[in-house]
Amino acid sequence: MTKQKRIAARIAGSTLACGALLAPAVANAADASPTLSDVLGNSGIFAAGYVSAGYTGSFNKGQMLSDRVFDSNANTFELNQAALILAHTPAEGFGAKAVIVGGSDAKVLNSFYGDGGSDLALFIAYAQYANGPLTVIAGRFPALSGAELALEPLNTNISRSLMLGLAQPVPLTGVRVNYQLTDDFVATVSLTNSDSFGSAAAVDDNKQKAIEAGGAYSPSKAIRIALYNYYSKESDANGGKNDIVDLVASWQATEKMQLVLNGDYKRVFRATTAGPASFTAGAAGYINYQIAPKWSTSLRLEALELKNETAATSTEVQEVTLTGRYSATRNLRLLAEFRYDHASADNFADGTDADGMAVLSKHDTELGATAIYTFGL
User: What's this model's pTM, rounded to 2 decimal places?
Assistant: First the structure.
């Protein structure tokens, strides 16, 4: 099992891992005296974490990257994430999980919850009850949409896809019910605050709630298909009604190669217009390949259409990202990335003119490097 798969199988909330539970820590029998991990593991508590830092250089002018969620600063070193994971999630009965994230990405995570610009975010925090095929969680948890997640070790690339920010919800607050209908199908229904669907409001400002509904089908160990629908209702000033359909299909084609397809369709309605005010449709394809035990690579190809029907405008955006990963040790991963974005209209920040006005370009090219150190994973 590769390091990427091992981490994805241990951190809950991963779309590709189907929300796998954090596994208990394994005691180190070689030590003469028990460590803190041993004590926690023997108590059924899993404790782990990671630190991620990197640098992104843009060939465009200025320091802002357009249409990004987390990696929006260019030409600067950043401590992206320093995370601590604590969980007690038994297969039967009550449990809980918490993921605390510090660093520059914490500001982004806090913005989804309306918590301000703190460098420390309580990203995941929920109580759980499991009984046979039924699992219920209540609190804060990630959406099941997308092939990429907020937590950095779960992703095969350094930068996130455009769809993560433009067509997918990220964190949710509410109640989620998972039910294992058959050995290969899990159904999910959630009722959450409608504060994470691309609206201008960071906090829920009305009585209406958002609904997450769908399921994941795994006919074999090599194939997994997940389809989810998200519907929320806000005031017109805060985004109107949002309807998102998300599809993720993965196929372990060979022992070394995995293919992933992520498709999204998001419609935004206004009460004052007859039809959708805007829609975003896109797809991203991934080729993940294990070159050697310590070397792997990931190619992402992505295309979106951003259409504003009210303004009668449409923009097409494409990006290609190639990432190489080297597992220097069991706990340390080094990543290097090349990315190119192109749009049919001026869409990407490219500095300012002599009058201080923002300049936009149809393209952006970047080089990035990141180091991720994990412990307990």
Answer: 0.84
